[in-house]
Design goal:
The protein has 499 residues and is α/β, with parallel strands linked by helices. Helices cover 30% and strands 20% of the residues. Strands 5, 6, 7, 8, 9, 10, 11, 12, 13, 14, 15 and 16 form a twelve-stranded mixed β-sheet that branches. This is Radical SAM core domain-containing protein.
Length: 499
């Protein structure tokens, strides 16, 4: 008699074998693809794969089985796309070697452009494996300003003439002296907002650059790297104690009324006990619009990374309850409805008239919020709901609020959240006069705080379904640019920024 498996099969997937990557970088067209499955045992979720060379292996996928299962049932319809190559009907994985194929399931919510390989930090932990300070400067830095503009224009056309979010990244983008020109060219296009993904060093030191950001504050947001408060955290992730510099950069942004998001890389046993403290810092900073929590993953430079004992999103959200005194916990997060359910967990905290903070799902009611999302997903008529809910759903507010990093400005996001709150009897009274029918959006935005938790995939957690519905795309710089899923870009050696 055959013995039962000591685990439950949750999902099937096409994945890769991480042991095949131990000898060095691998290309997506090599013999690395393996049948896999997501399985559960010991109240955790694991990625299991079957390799003819290395046998059956498994890696930790999610720390909390119950919270992972609670992600089911939140999906909304995805947007149609224009593929990067009109004749690319090749199935997975072949089709993704040439950008987004015809059958890709979601458009570009965030277009990420890596504008340099250089950096002014020497971080031991770096998914991009950026060049360290002292690396000889190139005679001509690529991508050039014109190459960047060309990629933006071509991909803008493929997105129907509008891009919600352009993220300028690297390396460290602020080492480019022409970054203001890069940003101004982008702002001249039909792009809702530009995010600058930075370690904050130039912001802490350069008054002229800060003034430039202030000038464009209505369409710019700073994604500020901020890993915690302990010197040991900075030294582990950044190679030096940079906490005072980070705090100075954040304070200068706040004083200049430039919106920022704190971006926290989280490593097990290093700073996973500091997440709640960083949340509180963000809440105490009026022009900090949110926090992006990113568990460290296995691509790039990553000393001491243990795929069997890593930090995962459900582990972080579960531990937040104790770290924030119950302010926010795992039950306050929902999966981002527009992408694959494992790609991003999101919540919003709103400040009430008493000065305390409450999560949006808790204020509205998790079941009611899910009902609204089901109405968006499954009906074209909202006759079964109240007039205020019907108008809110028709306006698209709920779709904009629960999109990847927000496709709209901070003030528009505040307006949309106010619409959601206006649909719940008694909630505007709890929140106070600021959340009235015609709210002061700048003030409302300062009382709104977004938290996302996003685990990018590596060879240990690669799940083909997430690639197929990815909405965070890295653009290439070539005559006919392509878009790669962020996770695909940093896993495979043939997915470069230059084709």
């Amino acid at each position: 008699m055959l013995a039962p498996r000591p685990y439950l099969i949750e999902e099937y997937t096409q994945t890769v074998c991480p042991k095949c990557f131990e000898s060095g970088p691998r290309r997506s067209d090599e013999d690395i693809w393996r049948a896999g499955m997501l399985i559960s045992h010991d109240e955790k979720v694991w990625m299991k794969r079957f390799c003819p060379e290395h046998g059956e292996t498994e890696s930790l996928y999610e720390e909390n089985l119950a919270l992972w299962r609670a992600r089911a049932g939140w999906s909304t319809p995805t947007s149609q796309i224009t593929p990067d190559r009109a004749d690319n009907f090749a199935p997975f994985p072949t089709g993704y070697r040439n950008g987004l194929p015809v059958h890709h399931a979601q458009h570009t919510c965030i277009l990420l452009l890596n504008v340099t390989k250089r950096c002014n930090f020497a971080c031991p932990t770096c998914y991009a494996a950026a060049q360290k300070p002292g690396t000889p400067l190139p005679i001509i830095e690529h991508p050039t300003l014109d190459e960047i503009s060309h990629t933006v224009r071509v991909l803008l056309e493929r997105e129907g003439g509008k891009i919600g979010v352009l993220m300028v990244s690297g390396g460290e983008p602020t080492v480019r002296e022409d970054l203001p020109q890069i940003i101004e060219r982008a702002l001249s296009e039909n792009i809702t907002r530009v995010l600058i993904n930075t370690n904050g060093r130039r912001i802490a030191r350069d008054d002229k650059f800060l003034h430039f950001l202030r000038k464009h504050r209505e369409k710019i947001e700073v994604y500020l790297q901020f890993d915690g408060f302990k010197p040991s955290t900075s030294i582990f992730h950044r190679g030096e104690d940079v906490i005072e510099e980070k705090l100075k950069a954040l304070q200068r942004l706040n004083d200049a009324q430039i919106w920022s998001t704190l971006v926290m890389s989280v490593s097990k046993g290093v700073n996973d006990d500091e997440v709640g403290q960083v949340v509180k810092l963000g809440l105490d900073t009026p022009f900090c619009s949110g926090m992006a929590i990113q568990p460290v993953f296995g691509s790039g430079r990553n000393p001491g990374f243990d795929p069997q004992n890593r930090v995962t999103p459900t582990g972080i959200t579960h531990r937040l309850g104790a770290q924030t005194g119950g302010l926010v916990s795992g039950e306050d997060f929902i999966p981002l409805p527009c992408s694959h359910r494992d790609c991003c967990d999101i919540t919003y905290l709103l400040q009430t008239k008493r000065g305390d903070w409450k999560s949006l799902p808790r204020l509205i009611g998790r079941d009611e919020l899910k009902r609204w999302i089901h109405l968006v997903s499954n009906t074209i008529s909202f006759d079964s709901v109240s007039g205020s809910v019907s108008e809110m759903l028709k306006s698209g507010a709920i779709a904009r609020v629960f999109s990847d990093s927000g496709k709209v400005s901070t003030l528009k996001m505040a307006s949309d959240i106010a619409k959601l709150c206006g649909c719940v009897a008694g909630l505007p009274e709890i929140l106070g006069a600021l959340w009235s029918e015609k709210p002061n959006l700048e003030s409302v935005a300062q009382k709104t705080f977004r938290i996302t938790v996003k685990q990018f995939m590596d060879a240990h957690t690669f799940h083909d379904a997430r690639i197929r519905q990815c909405c965070v795309h890295s653009g290439t710089f070539e005559d006919d640019p392509k878009r790669h899923s962020f996770c695909w870009r940093w896993l495979f050696d043939d997915a470069s920024d230059f084709g």
